[in-house]
Task: structure prediction
Amino acid sequence: MRTLLAICMLALCLPVLADQRLFYQPLNRDAAVTPAQWQQLWRATKAQGGKTLIVQWSAYGDSDFGGAQGWLANSLREAHAQGLELVLGLYMDPAYYQRIEALDGDGLSTYWKSQLGRSLSQYQHVREGWQLPVAGWYLPMELDDLHFRDAARREALYSQLQALNRRLDRPLHISAFSAGKLAPRVNGAWLDQLAGLGLTVWWQDGAGTGRLPPLVRQNYEQALPCRVGVVREAFRQVSAPGQAFRAEPAEPKLNAGCHAEAVFALRYRPWARGVLPQN
Result:
């Protein structure tokens, strides 16, 4: 009887702790994955509890991964055929992190405006040409409390995101991470303000990058309102600062709290090994 009860309890917990929402970061080398492998990967993702696939971008610099009939679009059509809901990323500037590091004041605001314009153009291109059933859109430009610690910057960002969100036909998703520059309470209030625009806001737990000590990360997470989701990092970074990013798979720290959870990223999950190149 106790064994049966334990099994039942486990069955009740599994849907909560499964990889229900998974980030997928397209890379040009994924073009080598065959259609049969994609089908197998999406079936396995669904079997592992997957419901939503958040695709980090659909254009990265000059690459659109083959466009409407390219390998990415075709693989996502297969993902949808296997029962996965799609949140599709927009445009990503490869130099984004260098640019926001170098720019300040009006320069940063102008840069953000131009990049949101690129994402809006990509949205129109994908919506008209790719003809994918999309449940949401993802803005690849991550936010952090270092470059947006100034209240004026956060207000300018708020207005720009509000304007973009009004142009889209589905909810806009955006993610942020903490660098320890805003107090946890202030950071939580900022992300809550963005969620108030109708955005789906995600906070990265930082367990994989390890930029902040575990106790500090915990304080930031505890200060988040329930409507801000948490991205659980399923990797451990092994590259040193200044080196090209390298990471090893690690089990994400899922829990059954009040926050929606997503896992970053599909590439590091066991069933993707041997299909998606990791580093």
